[in-house]
Amino acid sequence: MVLSSQETIDQFRTLQAQLGDRWHLLEGEDNADVDILVVPSFSVDQQELQKIDGFLHYEERLLFTLIRLRNPRTRLIYVTSQPLPPIVIDYYLQLLPGIPFSHARDRLLLVPIHDQSLKPLSQKILERPRLMERIRNSLRPDHAYMVCFNSTPLERELSVQLDIPLMAADPELLYWGTKSGSRQIFAECGIPHPDGSDLVKTVDDLAQEAALLWSRQPQLQRMVVKLNEGFSGEGNGILGLTSLAPKLGDSPSVAERMNLLQAHLPSLVFESATETWAHYAARIPILGAIVEAYIEGKPKHSPSFQGAVLPSRQVEALSTHDQILGGPNHQIYLGCRFPAQEGYRLQLQELGLKVGQNLAEKGVLERFGVDFVAVQTQDGATWEVQAIEINLRKGGTTHPFMTLKLLTNGHYDTATGLFSGQKGTPKYYVASDNLQKGAYHGLLPNDLMDIIAEHHLHFNSGNETGTVFHLMGCLSEFGKVGLTSIGNSPEEADQIYRHVAEVLDAETQPHDVSHPTMPLAWCLGQER
């Protein structure tokens, strides 16, 4: 039976309401008798997604969920567009402490669809009735829930047709995770954020809002234009104003500023190397856009807060990070360090929890992130923090933190903003989705495993330090891999990460070529 849109929404909400009654069952730490359906679908604008090298392999980002098989009564179904290399699955299952490999493997069902088209994975599943029936028959509805990368009407439809709740935000509430929705929440919460505009849908309106912003702040040096549903900073463009100001008179009107900006919008400097103004302008009526003041200052960092709204509507602080950004104007997410700097990490947590309470009151469920910009004051004593945007999805900081949490069974201390392993030792890490070099092209997952074994790059469960790899499927075609390097100090985490990069460089170059040690930030693709 095909449900109408409102019937689907109502049934979805009925299913989600069940999460509150059985949360203790679904998230039991020791013996969770639960079936977890993992649908790592990147259900975002496909044109934006194509700007990311190897985006189909980003379905591997949620492979940290395999660590949940450490609970001997948990079963897991993992659906992907293409088959995962068996050695990659073996790699994750070997990480499980105290669980026989064969026992964990028997409780894991891998479901490749063999469809590498650009459609979201959730759509591919819905288009296959026999596959849907197979998944449905593999689940115990009263003991099952579904997780995904982000929640859209596609994931909602999948939840309803499979008759299991989705642990994610209701798609009807996704506006609060857009650029314009984020600005509205920041204003409601009284959280500092850059001066900027509401949502616009035309280039003329964008130029007008930019002119009004420039009039309010005539000394502004740069503006940032953002597609309302851009992903990972790839939908951002920077417009410099310093060279334009001399072209205006002493007291320019808004109209004069608007005319000048309209003529120069095509000169936006895009974060994506493949973006053009013609394509970008055509996306504005479809996705919408905002314009904001670009925050200047040195030193400047881009930290983030991660939290979760539980089915009980309680808001939980999960982590803070310093994001590592790349691109022409450092707008593209490359990686992160945990935790964020001591000077502002508790401030991030306080502001992030305010956002979480607002989201909970609006009915949002599960994980959310808040990105900030932190600029040190002139006296160097404090940091000025401004909120930039909210993400209602699993982001680039999700898999490294969850990998740490599930591997160590440790806990996050809200009093300090630190995470301690099971032995009580604080843990730190450096993580990236973008350790990428031309020399890595052609490396197979099996080759990487040989390198890991030969150079002892694996995670050591004894002292809870080492490296965990992900996105291994990206290596051969795109020369890119992801990794989380965990240490007992920030310096140790940096050293572990740097050592991995040096080993990969040495293993992928001719033996007669020397390879000087490069700083960590260079390995991640940006100046530090």
How would you describe the overall organization of this protein?
The chain has three domains: 5-168, Rossmann fold (3-Layer(aba) Sandwich), CATH 3.40.50; 195-293, no CATH class; 300-523, D-amino Acid Aminotransferase, Chain A, domain 1 (2-Layer Sandwich), CATH 3.30.470.20. Helix 1 packs across helix 8 (153-162) and helix 9 crosses helix 13 (345-361). It has helices at residues 5-21, 23-26, 46-49, 86-93, 101-106, 121-126, 129-138, 153-162, 179-189, 203-216, 254-264, 277-287, 345-361, 398-408, 445-455, 475-478, 490-507, 520-523; strands at 35-39, 75-80, 108-112, 144-148, 222-227, 236-240, 269-270, 289-293, 300-309, 315-326, 332-338, 366-376, 383-391, 411-413, 418-420, 426-436, 466-470, 480-487. The longest helix has 18 residues, at 490-507. The protein has 528 residues and is of the alpha+beta class. It has 18 helices and 18 strands. Strand 10 and strand 11 (332-338) form a beta hairpin. It is globular and about 75 Å long. Strands 9, 10, 11, 12, 13, 14, 15, 16, 17 and 18 form a ten-stranded antiparallel β-sheet that branches.
